[in-house]
């Protein structure tokens, strides 16, 4: 529903001018006395007296009311005794107006009113005339004192002095009175002749060649104009001199016989008709044959003939229209050219005449329906030239001083365009060029909004793009006319703080209220600059010279604000005034609050900044108050505003852009609709107007105009979103997956082009090809290159067709017409020394760039497609065809998956690998996963080209960096920071688990400085250097160094210090051991990188490379796994089970690894004071998880997790129950670390489905015999398989030897511990017995997966591999001897024993 409009500015003005008491001269009351007793007239007289003397009087109203009061009531007035006094008061008032006012229109009205009253006085009957003569005499004497600029309005009046004199002469005047009359008559005639002598002589109006063409007829023309020629005027002046010597009667008679101003005007009025006969007799083929037209032009250009200008214009237009209609089509070309030559030569000083002629000619020619003729006419219009604004400043009454014909020129050309838009592209282009290069001057009071509405309601669809180019230039897309609403409040408060005494600010306020235009933005910028620098030079163009001189450079109006603005600039780090636009009110106020200064002066600064932002919003397309603007338009019939607002407030960038494009399409539908919408104009004028300045307030609405204004503002917002969207889509390289994102954005751009009125078949064709290509499985790189070359050509084609071709020819013409003096300063800055040709070339380039930059989305599209094409070319230059093909398959969007901010594109087993995928699932369940991220198998697959092509590698590194930042933020530590270091683990993770087969690097981010910082932070020297030791060992082993090297160093170090366990080292001793590791590694030629970032990158390389390590390839071959899966890389914050003996690590099964158990029961291994790698590598002694496990495995002397760390145990148990019972997961094998006994210090490192023995084939058990029982020598931990008797082997050579000798004999591999490198030995043997490790070590898991019988953790075994024997609990066993092991019970026997197939899964107790 449309709201009723009330002008707050008008209300404020009425309050301000509603003065109740003011002085009234005593003599004015005679006006009331004269109508005493006439009730209606008394009221009229009283109101008139108040109006005349009101301090804010409306002079136009005074003149009209006074004239009406006297003339309508003349009979009543002259019947009164004081009638002469009444008429004299009326005359005095009008004479005062004549003397003081400067407006031509007011002077004309005052002169007409005064002479009308005197004419009425002259009509008074002779018998009463004598008492009124003093009124006439008084006026005649005052007339002679008027300046020529004022007296001219009297002599031009309809009530001429000759007519007046003729009436007065009939009243029987005295000699003295006749002298007075003769003097004013003589004065008026002398003034008239002297005035006309200053005007062009009609005898010289026709050009010399025209007179030659006329031949004998030229004499007739000169004879015709002789009565008004300068020769005649001089004769009239001579006659006046002669008449001075005559007696009064002859003098008056002679004076009345002479022509007065109106007689001369009357002669000029008849002259065109008198010369018409001459033109008829002239040669019709002569270009100067139409003398009548020439005369009419001369009349219009002559200022003195202004009373008949309107009629002369009407005749000119009528003549031109008739001539166009008479001319045959084949000769109209010549006629158009001749007419414009005529216009050019005769109407230089009065261009408005030509504009009116051009307008009407245009209508006639366009109505002929001949496009060729229309184009010829329009070309001539352009060549004729345009009236630039020529802004020269502001006068003291706040008027802009500019070319008055400028706006008329715009409106004239616009009228022609509206008449037939699709044929007027040349003229529309010329209008765009002129306004863009020379600027424009349109005031609020011009109500140019109506002209825009008129244009939009014509048939603009065929030229919609050009129309938008034109309309964008105009600063008129506001509904509030004048200073309304918040703008008025702000400007008023700003001025009133110093009670209007700051003249500069008062002038700003009044100009914004009275005659505002977009130039006020520059004015405010100049004031802000002045306040900042105390240099008032920038203000000079915007104020009158006298005010400029009075602006102080110091004092209360500048000193305080200078200090505040200077401090504001420094605090806000501003470079230029326009930077203020990026700050909102809250930010500005906050900065001001931090600055010392008087509150009132800080308020002034705030208000000036606020006014600046409001004016920019009013005249530009930036939306600082988007919500209020849209809410306002909702009341004017625009649909779904609330929906648009909601999307803009809450949606992401693409959703915002899509919503804006949807709404822009809706607005375009309104603008191009054939429906006509009725405008709503609520325009008000001040009743009392200071200095008679026309002041207008109000509001204008018309639906198409409002739709276009909203279109431009939403396009500005959409342009910003396009820029952000393109910038956000960093495209240092292009792959097939990138094309999907690119296509999505290009589709947005295509919609934007359509909204902009642009259609390109070439662009749409290649965009269609891109769409189709993404449906094709195999599409070559060169084909994509062809498509993007085509898209780029499409954009260039659009630029040429819509922005270059329409303007190219016009630009050359108009630049030369405008010249340097009329170009906007921005086109001249820095080019002052260029020649005209060079300058025009530069300006043309700048014009086209600006035009494209102002368009909707085109520049962003051009930049986007150009960037894409350059990237594709660069890739082709730097990569082989094989690498290009690989790169095309790469999807950088699938590179990284942060565990706590998962990537939707990678949430699958293939991309994340088994380990990473399970970590992702656990993180989504809210379980305590160490923060980290997964580098997916997508990177592994394309790692070769990622590393080879710098752009892809840089992008990969940037993604790793961002992911690492998320980890830092979550952990509260900084990678590479010695005071608060973040250390990470870098581990592999294939889709099909390959436990222990690939590289792992722990505590990445360590160097000596960081470790020293860690020691200082924790106060735990042992922990810090143990952490570094572990980093060095994992780093070296990932580089291929054997574990045994470090085992030997550890043994030697223990021997030196006489300790059995590393935990018994002091901190310094652990530091010493770490440095021994470091030295050995260097000796082996392995570089130790100290830069944490480099460490991380090399670790990633090592993990990826380890996919193709010998042991990994062997494992895949043995297990029948494809080589094409690849591995992900898991990067996680380190958790420290080695921080103390109250910390630890372990692996837990959610059910016993044997038997058919559906319930949750925790089983597995843990070790205190160690990191997770110790367990999975089988390097440390482990303990059971639960009391149940402890009992069932006969390990009653070992401390269980359940007993030692109950909180950790119960938290694990809760997690297991939730996963198995609630989330319906299968039973899991969970690796964990805890940093203290509290439950909140538990971390899940990974989880995978456990393989229980019940899933394996039926197994063997030993036949219980006395010999079996007697041969029992010890027990380890049963891992897999059943009862097995076999011969002892120590190496792969041993295995191969016995396989040749007796292929069917089972072989049992004996090892102190096993590492993943032993995969070939484990695979070749039938059983495995180790001295160390638990059932969750990598070796145990691998043996289990390979279906081997395995017992680990048999600590009473010492192996002498080089000597070919082992000691088992004191018993010597040589290579080839028989031993027996039980993979269920962990029992170990000497010798060979009988086995049988178990009828059911054996209970542990049954075989002990």
Structure notes:
- The protein is α+β, with helices and mostly antiparallel strands and 1408 residues long.
- Among the domains are: 305-390 and 399-473; 478-619, no CATH class; 729-889; 893-1111, Dna Ligase, domain 1 (2-Layer Sandwich); 1135-1250, D-amino Acid Aminotransferase, Chain A, domain 1; 1256-1408, Phosphohistidine domain (Glucose Oxidase, domain 1, 3-Layer(bba) Sandwich), CATH 3.50.30.10.
- The protein is 57% helix and 9% strand.
- It has 64 helices and 30 strands.
- The strands form 8 sheets. The protein has an 8-stranded mixed beta sheet. Strands 6-7-12-10-11 form a 5-stranded antiparallel beta sheet.
- Strand 16 and strand 17 form a beta hairpin.
- 45% of the residues are buried.
- Residues 1306-1386 form the PEP-utilising enzyme mobile domain.
- Residues 959-1193 form the Pyruvate phosphate dikinase AMP/ATP-binding domain.
- One of its GO terms (molecular function) is kinase activity.
């Amino acid at each position: 529903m449309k709201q009723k409009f009330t002008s707050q500015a008008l209300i404020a003005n009425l309050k301000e001018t509603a003065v109740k008491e003011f002085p009234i001269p005593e003599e004015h009351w005679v006006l009331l006395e004269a109508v005493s007793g006439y009730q209606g007239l008394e009221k009229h007289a009283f109101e008139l007296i108040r109006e005349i003397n009101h301090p804010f009087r409306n002079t136009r109203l005074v003149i009209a009311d006074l004239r009406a009061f006297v003339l309508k009531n003349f009979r009543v007035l002259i019947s009164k005794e004081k009638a002469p006094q009444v008429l004299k008061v009326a005359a005095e008032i009008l004479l005062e107006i004549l003397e003081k006012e400067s407006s031509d229109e007011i002077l004309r009205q005052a002169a007409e009113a005064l002479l009308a009253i005197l004419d009425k006085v002259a009509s008074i009957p002779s018998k009463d005339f004598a008492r009124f003569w003093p009124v006439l005499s008084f006026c005649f004497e005052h007339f002679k004192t008027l300046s020529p600029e004022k007296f001219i309005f009297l002599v031009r009046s309809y009530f001429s002095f000759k007519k007046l004199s003729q009436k007065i002469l009939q009243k029987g005047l005295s000699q003295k009175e006749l002298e007075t009359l003769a003097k004013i008559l003589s004065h008026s005639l002398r003034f008239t002749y002297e005035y006309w002598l200053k005007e062009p002589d009609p005898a010289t109006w026709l050009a010399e060649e025209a007179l030659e063409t006329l031949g004998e007829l030229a004499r007739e023309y000169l004879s015709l104009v002789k009565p008004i020629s300068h020769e005649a005027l001089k004769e009239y002046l001579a006659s006046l001199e002669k008449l001075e010597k005559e007696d009064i009667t002859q003098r008056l008679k002679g004076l009345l016989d002479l022509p007065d101003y109106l007689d001369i005007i009357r002669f000029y009025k008849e002259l065109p008709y008198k010369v018409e006969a001459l033109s008829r007799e002239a040669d019709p083929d002569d270009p100067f044959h139409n003398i009548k037209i020439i005369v009419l032009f001369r009349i219009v250009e002559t200022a003195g003939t202004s009373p008949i200008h309107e009629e002369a214009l009407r005749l000119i237009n009528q003549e031109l229209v008739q001539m166009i209609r008479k001319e045959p089509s084949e000769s109209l070309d010549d006629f158009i050219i001749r007419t414009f030559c005529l216009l050019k030569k005769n109407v230089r000083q009065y261009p408005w005449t030509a504009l009116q002629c051009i307008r009407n000619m245009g209508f006639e020619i366009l109505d002929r329906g001949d496009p060729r003729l229309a184009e010829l006419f329009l070309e001539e219009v352009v060549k004729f030239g345009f009236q630039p604004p020529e802004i020269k400043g502001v006068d003291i009454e706040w008027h802009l001083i500019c070319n008055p014909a400028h706006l008329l020129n715009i409106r004239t050309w616009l009228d022609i365009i509206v008449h037939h838009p699709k044929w007027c592209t040349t003229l529309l282009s010329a209008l765009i060029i002129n306004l863009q290069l020379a600027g424009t001057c349109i005031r609020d009071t011009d109500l140019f909004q109506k002209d825009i509405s008129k244009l939009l309601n014509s048939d603009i669809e065929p030229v919609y793009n050009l129309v938008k180019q034109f309309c964008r230039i105009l600063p008129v897309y506001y509904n509030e006319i004048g200073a309304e609403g918040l703008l008025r409040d702000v400007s008023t408060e700003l001025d009133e703080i110093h009670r209007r005494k700051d003249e500069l600010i008062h002038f700003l306020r009044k100009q914004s209220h009275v005659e505002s235009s977009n130039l006020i933005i520059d004015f405010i910028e100049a004031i802000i600059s002045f306040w900042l620098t105390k240099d008032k030079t920038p203000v000079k163009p915007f104020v009158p010279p006298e005010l400029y001189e009075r602006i102080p450079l110091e004092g209360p109006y500048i000193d305080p604000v200078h200090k505040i603005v200077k401090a504001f600039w420094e605090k806000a780090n501003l470079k230029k005034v326009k930077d203020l636009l990026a700050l909102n009110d809250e930010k500005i106020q906050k900065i001001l609050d931090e600055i010392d200064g008087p509150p009132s002066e800080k308020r002034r600064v705030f208000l000036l900044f606020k006014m600046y932002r409001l004016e920019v919003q009013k005249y530009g397309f930036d939306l600082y108050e988007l919500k209020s603007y849209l809410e306002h338009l909702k009341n004017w019939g625009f649909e779904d505003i609330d929906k648009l607002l909601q999307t803009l407030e809450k949606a992401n960038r693409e959703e915002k852009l899509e919503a804006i494009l949807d709404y822009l399409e809706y607005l375009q539908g309104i603008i191009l609709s054939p429906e006509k919408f009725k405008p709503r104009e609520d325009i008000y004028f001040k009743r009392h107007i200071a200095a008679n300045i026309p002041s207008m307030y109000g509001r204008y609405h018309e639906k198409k105009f409002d739709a276009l204004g909203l279109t431009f503002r939403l396009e500005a917002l959409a342009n910003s979103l396009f820029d952000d969207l393109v910038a956000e889509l960093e495209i240092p390289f292009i792959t097939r997956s990138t094309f999907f994102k690119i296509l999505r954005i290009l589709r947005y751009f295509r919609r934007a082009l359509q909204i902009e009125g642009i259609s390109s078949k070439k662009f749409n064709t290649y965009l269609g090809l891109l769409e189709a290509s993404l449906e094709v499985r195999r599409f070559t790189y060169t084909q994509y290159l062809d498509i993007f070359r085509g898209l780029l050509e499409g954009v260039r084609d659009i630029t040429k067709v819509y922005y270059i071709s329409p303007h190219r020819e016009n630009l050359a013409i108009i630049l030369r017409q405008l010249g340097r003096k009329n170009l906007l300063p921005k086109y001249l800055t820095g080019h002052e020394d260029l020649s005209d040709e060079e300058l025009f070339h530069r300006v043309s380039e700048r014009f086209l760039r600006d035009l494209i930059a102002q368009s909707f989305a085109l520049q962003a599209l051009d930049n986007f497609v150009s960037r894409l094409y350059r990237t594709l070319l660069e890739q082709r230059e730097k990569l082989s065809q094989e690498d290009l093909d690989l790169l095309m398959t790469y999807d950088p969007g699938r590179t990284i998956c942060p565990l706590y901010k998962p990537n939707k594109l990678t949430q699958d087993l293939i991309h994340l690998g088994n380990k990473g995928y399970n970590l992702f699932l656990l993180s989504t369940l809210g379980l305590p996963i160490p923060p980290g991220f997964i580098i997916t198998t997508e990177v592994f697959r394309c790692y070769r080209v990622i590393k080879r092509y710098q752009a892809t590698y840089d992008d990969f590194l940037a993604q790793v960096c961002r992911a690492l930042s998320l980890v830092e933020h979550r952990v509260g530590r900084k990678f590479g920071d010695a005071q608060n270091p973040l250390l990470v683990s870098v581990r592999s993770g294939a889709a099909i688990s390959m436990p222990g087969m690939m590289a792992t690097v722990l505590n990445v981010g360590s160097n000596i400085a960081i470790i020293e910082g860690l020691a200082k932070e924790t106060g735990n020297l042992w922990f810090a250097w143990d952490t570094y030791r572990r980093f060095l060992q994992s780093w070296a082993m990932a580089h291929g160094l054997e574990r045994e090297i470090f085992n030997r160093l550890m043994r030697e170090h223990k021997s030196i210090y006489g300790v059995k366990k590393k935990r018994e080292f002091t901190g310094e001793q652990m530091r010493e051991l770490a440095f021994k590791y470091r030295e050995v590694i260097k000796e082996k030629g392995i570089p130790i990188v100290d830069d944490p970032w480099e460490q991380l990158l090399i670790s990633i390389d090592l993990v990826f490379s380890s996919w193709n390590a010998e042991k990994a390839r062997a494992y895949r071959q043995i297990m029948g796994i494809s080589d094409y899966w690849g591995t992900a890389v898991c990067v996680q914050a380190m958790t420290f089970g080695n921080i103390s003996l109250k910390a630890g690590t372990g692996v837990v099964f959610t059910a016993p690894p044997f038997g058919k158990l559906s319930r949750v029961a925790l089983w597995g291994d843990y070790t205190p004071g160690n990191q997770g790698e110790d367990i999975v590598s089988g390097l440390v002694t482990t303990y059971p998880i639960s009391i149940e496990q402890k009992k069932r495995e006969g390990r009653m002397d070992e401390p269980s997790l359940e007993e030692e760390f109950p909180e950790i145990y119960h938290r694990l148990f809760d997690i297991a129950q939730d996963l198995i019972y609630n989330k319906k997961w299968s039973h899991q094998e969970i690796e964990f670390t805890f940093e203290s006994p509290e439950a909140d210090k538990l971390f899940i490192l990974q989880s995978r489905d456990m393989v229980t023995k019940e899933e394996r084939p039926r197994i063997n058990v030993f036949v219980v015999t006395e010999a079996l029982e007697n041969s029992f020598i010890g027990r380890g931990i049963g891992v897999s398989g059943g009862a097995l008797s076999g011969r002892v082997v120590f190496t792969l050579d041993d295995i191969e030897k016995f396989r040749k000798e007796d292929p069917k004999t089972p072989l049992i591999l004996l090892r102190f511990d096993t590492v993943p490198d032993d995969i070939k030995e484990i695979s070749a043997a039938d059983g495995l017995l180790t001295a160390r490790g638990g059932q969750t070590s990598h070796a145990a898991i691998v043996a289990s997966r390979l279906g081997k019988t395995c017992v680990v953790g048999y600590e009473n075994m010492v192996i002498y591999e080089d000597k070919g024997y082992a000691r088992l609990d004191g018993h010597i066993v040589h290579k080839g001897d028989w031993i027996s092991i039980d993979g269920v019970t962990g029992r170990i026997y000497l010798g060979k024993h009988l086995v049988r197939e178990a009828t059911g899964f054996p209970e542990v107790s049954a075989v002990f």
